[in-house]
């Protein structure tokens, strides 16, 4: 494992407190620090200071199993959590609102979002997100909705189909009008926000994140923190914070060069970033590029690696608020893959890392109710792995298996689906 300079040393840096900030960045969505103070925090004594933890294990798989960050976090500040609903999300932005075979022009409009809502309802997907583009003035006012969107009509349409609407929001506008925005859209029936472009981890930003979680909880809104620093147990203190980015996720495949090794990265982060908490990786691509076939494409993006890799990521990566990144049209052409993605849980009763080595491979088992899900990822090297299934209860079990096809090394979407009967007594 090497850093950006190509060596294997790391140094911790705590951002100094902002002295001067100015609106700026991508689409003017951020507060950019122009100058910083000579100290890292402003505090009123006496007070307690944050904990720091070094997690040390004898094997890689034990590290992937660690939930130390969650255990050390402050207990919940949300007395009633009955309204908090994890689940999957039909996402628009990654697939560029591309749906085909319809008689309307797809894009940021009610017809397109009703199509996403119908798709979600048909497949038991809990949410649809309206990502960047639904507000007139992204950087300044989230109360202005583009003329192509009738927000109340969409929210009501979704509610009748038992689908919740999530709204994307840029940091600057959300921070400025947080109480007003949360109150208004909660009253309208919106179920949560995906807040983006924080892109800092100094004290001022950490305080914003806690304030956002608190205000959203007040109005019964779930929160997905995108463009965000690594988590540190906030999802325990505010259980309405269902996911956090802080990861080089699949969205990067819209523009990253072929020199980026996303496949190796995917078998690195479970041992590093995911130890800190849930990650909004946004998997689910139906266009899958074998080695040497990937190229960046903004409107019709693809993943590196195989189709089964995308399916397995729903088990290996812990994401209580989990995106379906591809277009409904692509999913409907891939019925078997869709059936798995639409039904795989996002929260678990039990999780075990069965085997793994950082940067090479990982096999994860997670239980939801009486059903176990096992996902395995490898780097570009094909491998056979034997795992211990003694955790399965009962003498006999039935397993549905998705595995790479014989030509998956050339055709990324090649896979085989099989049913196996497991018998403990007869091996």
UniProtKB/TrEMBL annotation:
Its EC number is 3.2.1.22. GO terms for molecular function: alpha-galactosidase activity; carbohydrate binding. SUPFAM superfamilies: (Trans)glycosidases. Pfam families: GH97_C, Glyco_hydro_97. Residues 347-425 form the Glycosyl-hydrolase 97 C-terminal oligomerisation domain. Signal peptide: none annotated. Keywords: Glycosidase, Hydrolase. Residues 93-247 form the Glycosyl-hydrolase 97 catalytic domain. The keyword Hydrolase applies. This is Alpha-glucosidase.
């Amino acid at each position: 494992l090497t850093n950006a300079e190509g060596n294997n040393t790391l140094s911790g840096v705590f951002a100094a407190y902002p002295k001067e900030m100015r609106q700026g960045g991508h689409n003017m969505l951020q507060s950019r620090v122009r100058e910083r103070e000579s100290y890292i925090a402003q505090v009123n004594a006496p007070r307690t200071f944050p904990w720091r933890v070094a997690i040390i294990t004898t094997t890689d798989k034990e590290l992937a199993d660690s939930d130390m960050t969650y255990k050390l976090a402050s207990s919940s500040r949300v007395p009633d959590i009955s309204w908090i609903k994890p689940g999957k999300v039909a996402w628009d932005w990654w697939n560029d609102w591309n749906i085909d075979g319809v008689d309307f022009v797809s894009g940021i409009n009610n017809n397109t979002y009703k199509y996403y809502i119908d798709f979600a309802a048909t497949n038991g997907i809990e949410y649809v997100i309206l990502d960047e583009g639904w507000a007139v003035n992204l950087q300044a006012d989230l109360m202005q909705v583009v003329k192509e969107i009738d927000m109340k009509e969409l929210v009501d349409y979704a509610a009748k189909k038992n689908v919740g609407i999530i709204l994307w929001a840029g940091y600057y506008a959300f921070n400025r009008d947080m109480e007003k925005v949360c109150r208004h859209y909660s009253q309208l029936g919106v179920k949560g926000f995906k807040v983006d472009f924080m892109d800092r981890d100094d004290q001022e930003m950490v305080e914003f994140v806690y304030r956002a979680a608190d205000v959203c909880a007040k109005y019964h809104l779930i929160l997905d923190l995108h463009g965000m620093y690594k988590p540190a147990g906030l999802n325990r203190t505010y259980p309405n914070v269902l996911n956090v980015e802080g990861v080089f996720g699949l969205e990067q495949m819209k523009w990253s060069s072929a020199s980026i090794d996303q496949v190796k990265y995917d078998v690195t982060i479970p041992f590093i970033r995911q130890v800190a908490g849930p990650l909004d990786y946004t998997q689910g691509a139906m266009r899958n590029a074998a080695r040497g076939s990937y190229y960046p494409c903004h409107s019709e993006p693809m993943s590196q690696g195989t189709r089964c890799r995308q399916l397995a990521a729903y088990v290996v990566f812990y994401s209580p608020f989990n995106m379906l990144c591809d277009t409904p049209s692509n999913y409907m052409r891939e019925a078997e893959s869709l059936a798995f993605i639409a039904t795989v849980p996002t929260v678990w009763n039990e999780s075990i890392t069965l085997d793994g080595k950082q940067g090479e491979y990982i096999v994860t088992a997670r239980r939801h109710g009486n059903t176990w899900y096992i996902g395995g990822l490898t780097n570009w090297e094909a491998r056979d792995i034997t795992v211990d299934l003694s955790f399965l209860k009962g003498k006999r079990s039935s397993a549905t298996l998705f595995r790479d096809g014989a030509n998956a090394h050339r055709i990324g979407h090649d896979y085989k689906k099989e049913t196996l009967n497991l018998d403990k007594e007869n091996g």
